[in-house]
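User: Sequence in, structure out. Go.
Assistant: Echoing your sequence, followed by the structure tokens.
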Amino acid sequence: MKLVLRFLMVVSGTALIVIGAQSCSTSVPSKTTVVVVHGAWGGGWAFREVDSILTSNGYSVYRPTLTGLGERVHLAGPDVNLSTHIEDVSNMILFEELHDIVLLGHSYGGMVVTGVADRVPDRIRHLIYLDAFLPEHNESVMELADDAAWIEQMTRGDLVVPLWVNPGQPPPKDEPHPLHSFTESMVLKNQAARDIPGTYILTVEKGVDASSDDFAKYAERARMRGWKVLQLEADHNPQWNAVKPFSEMLMGIVKTSVQ
């Protein structure tokens, strides 16, 4: 299925992006903070090129890696779950003293940013979901995936092993993903998070009907919330295969959100 193929292509690049504005005195703040957090199997390394473009345009960029993945693979363990990843990003926002931010999640990252928004809604100006899961209360990745059987086929104990990674492949590379981040259901308690405005970016490959896209249903959820839905001609990994148009679209959303 397309979802399976897209996950196999994307997982190292699934991501979150948090964008913060310190001042709104101009159309584009002089100091805007962008935090990029990957999703399943990946690491912050996957968004280096986007980081470079945003940095050259005056943004301050963070790319934290979720527990048990990327350079933090040595922290993998059976207790790592969705809540752990939500705490990773929430604590980064708190300890870095970030305010007035725009928070973006890519693919699995949509699960994480949803939880972060529920934890620290007062720190967030705008939400962006990039071809991402947009969960409601009590939903998990395993429940939302059109076909979770392929995840089960890759599961080895408490880890979902990326079979596309060659033995001995040097880093940066995809790493086994904590299974419990897929099976744990989202817990949402803070109604204030529902009031945060958002934008959904649906990536659609050339020649493909957008309505048949695996993430189209989440774009529709966003539309039902009154959010703007944008379409980007790209595969599930615009941070690699459509870097410039994706970065320009992202900066355009940020500029609008701080005006």
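User: And one key feature?
Assistant: The chain has ten helices and ten strands.
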